[in-house]
Amino acid sequence: MHVLMLRAQREAPRLSLSEPELLLKINSLIPDKLQERFNELIAKQQALTLTDADLSELIKVTDEIEHLDALRIGYLAELARQRQRSLIEVMQNLGIQPPPCV
Hints:
The structure is a single chain. By secondary structure, the protein is mainly alpha-helical. Helix content is 72%, strand content 0%. The protein is built from 5 helices and no strands. The relative contact order is 0.19.
């Protein structure tokens, strides 16, 4: 989560979105096709059938998902700033669970 926060701060500095706009962006999920492809590639990796081309694609897909996650954290951080609450408080209020490593 710490790495995502740092990336979010770098990629999404102070946003000037309204709360409804932020909530809409926060609730936007990873596109289904992207998540499905990620799951397929992870399954191939676990089955030890990942080709070099698959590995390259997995790296690209992972980067894209991390970018979307970082943006989401940035939107959450901005919402927390606007509400004058901690990020964890806002996440709890929205029912968003932090990753288990936090």
